[in-house]
Amino acid sequence: MKYSKIALAIHGGAGPDNEFIRANKKQYKDSLQRIANTGYRMLKKGEPAISVVRSVVSMLEDDPLFNAGRGSALNKDGDIEMDAAIMNGADLSAGGVALVTRARNPILLADQVRRHSSHLLLAGVGADNFAVQQHIPTVDCGYFVTEEQRRAWVENAIKQDHDPYAKSGGTVGAVALDQDGNLASTTSTGGTPGKAAGRIGDSCLIGAGCYADNATCAISGTGDGELLMKGLTGYSIAMMIDIRNMPIQEAAEQVIKNNKWEGDIGIIGIDGDGELAIYFNSQRMHRAWVDKYGKSEVHIY
């Protein structure tokens, strides 16, 4: 069978199921399918993988159904603090931002760090100021807060329940292979609901929740961030491919199954041959993809 040597996968977070997800299942799937198809069309037009993953994740950030950008979870104090990262497998350039409060699309800000900064990661006020310097669109914090996330925060406050593992968020991400054989990855999140102010997760950390190298693969992770950080999940999968010559799906499964700590982990990945890896150990992971044969799928469970 002929194939185009391009492929793309996106995710909208892994974790426990809940009533809101079940009630909005169609809306979730429609959004994931639309965004995946948009990204695939960009790849077919010859756009580079790094541009495609940046664009599709910005679309996911704009959708209030997902815990990234608009729709981000509120921390213990009821505030918004967002993280994001992007990595180009062609030259290993990368950028991340943490504790962002003003950039409408944190992934666009992370890409400016990659392109126009000598640093790899900016956080807090410094990242917010960099957004203004780089003319990234900024908004008031109220833009990010949705009725559902406010309701969840109030419910947790009443219960005095701020266990970050009680209600995992809906981190978003994308991986892609373009016509030139280049890989790229992006990940963006509002963090775990009820997290402590100042908590930084895996999504902005290269090698944990985001990794891309043309020599191995591109990975975007989701789930319990502390676990992905402890296990350096993205880089670990790449090393299984590099050192043990494992197929990407097998490498992903091995890394997640061999995780030493209890909790939810999910990944999407792609290698230089256009082979996709989709794996999670949680009740659900919102995901969609278009493979190297042009076949598309979307699933939550």
TrEMBL record:
Transmembrane segments: none
A matching Pfam family: Asparaginase_2
Active-site residues, Swiss-Prot/TrEMBL: T171 (nucleophile)
Keyword Calcium recorded: no
Chain sites annotated for binding substrate: R199, I200, G201, D202, T222, G223, D224, G225
Site (Cleavage): G170, T171
GO biological process, one term: proteolysis
Single Gene Ontology MF annotation: peptidase activity
Keywords, sorted A to Z: Autocatalytic cleavage, Hydrolase, Protease
Protein name: Isoaspartyl peptidase
Organism: Sphingobacterium paucimobilis HER1398
Phylogenetic classification of the source organism: Bacteria, Pseudomonadati, Bacteroidota, Sphingobacteriia, Sphingobacteriales
